[in-house]
Amino acid sequence: METTNLSKIRREKMLNTISEIKKNITDEKMLTNLSMIENELTKKKYGLIWEEHEERVDKELETQIPTFEEIKDKEIISNPNEKFNFLLEGDNLHSLYLLEKTHKEKIDVIYIDPPYNTGNKDFVYNDCYVDSEDSYRHSKWLSFMKKRLEIANELLSSNGTIFISIDDNEFAQLKLLCDDIFGESDFVTSIHWKRSESQNNSAKQLAIVGEYILCYAKNKNTHYFNKIDLKSTALKEYRYTDEKTGRKFRRGTIVDNTRGKNILEIISPNGIKKPLKV
Q1: Alpha-carbon dihedral sign for residues 15, 17, 18, 19
Q2: Has residue 50 been placed in a domain?
Q3: Phi/psi at 196 (nearest 5 deg)?
Q4: Which residues neighbour 26 within 8 Å (Cβ) at sequence distance 6 or greater?
Q5: Closest-CA residue to 109 (of 31, 223, 193)
């Protein structure tokens, strides 16, 4: 059963109204403005919508061309006949624009650790800290990230992969932004990693001990991480072959049977000690 798209109905009603208004208007400026409204109404209907902000560096790039300058007295090359790497220092958007000219579709792995936009002065926009009171802090952060991720996507090779660190503050927004730039179908996984062994006992709710790494591939269908060869003893366990795929598999229980070997002691409110298996 097809559902009724209420937003589409309202949008078409507004577009029809604008079309009728345009029939009775001859002023070129007014017609141009109405056409701009039509374009806004027909833009994408799913995904992130935010107030796009311009950075000072955007203005600079309109009139200035950044260049790389090699600092010879800082190079560390033990053998000039072997391959070596470059360390780029400067505004990241300047560097990305230059890399797009020199390394387009040539980068296999990109790792980005952007500002998390926590509101605790970890994110600088146009030389000013963006704090939690800034009503446009999410929009500024998304504008900042969008430009850089779009260039990163151009840099990835056909087998390229990008990893982006983030925490809860912008995880949801970043996931939607990356789906739009890299493609939802090329999302590999979200890696949740434990950043700290200690827990904050002063937390008012639950202590946060984890962060995330979003992973996208340039082409997920042809993308494979390096396989780890199994030892010969482990390979012997894969004695069966799947008739459809031809792949080896082994039979066994998938239930974790390693638990229950440690016994702790708990004390009830009345002082009675009881063993507890974990």
Answers
A1: positive
A2: no
A3: -145, 140
A4: none
A5: 223
Q: What is the DSSP letter of 97?
A: H
Measured between alpha carbons, how far is 6 from 20 in angstroms, rounded to an integer?
A: 21
**Mean pLDDT of the region 61-88:** 83
The percent of residues in the chain predicted with pLDDT above 70, rounded, is 86
DSSP 8-state code for residue 90: S
Spell 235-258 as b/e; 16+ CB within 10 A means b. Answer: eeeeeeeeeeeeeeeeeeeeeeee
Query: Do residues 159 and 250 both lie within one domain?
Result: no
Identify the domain containing residue 245 by its residue range.
Answer: 232-277
Both 182 and 237 in a single domain?
no
Strands 107-112 and 128-129: unpaired
Residue 96 lies in a domain: yes
Domain count, the chain: 3
Q: Are residues 65 and 192 in the same domain?
A: yes
Q: Is 90 exceeded by the pLDDT of residue 172?
A: yes
190 located within any domain: yes
**pLDDT for the residue numbered 107:** 94
pLDDT tens, 123-171?
Answer: 776 656 676 777 788 888 998 999 999 999 999 999 999 999 999 999 9
Residue 270 lies in a domain: yes
Question: Rg of the chain's alpha carbons, rounded to an integer?
Answer: 27
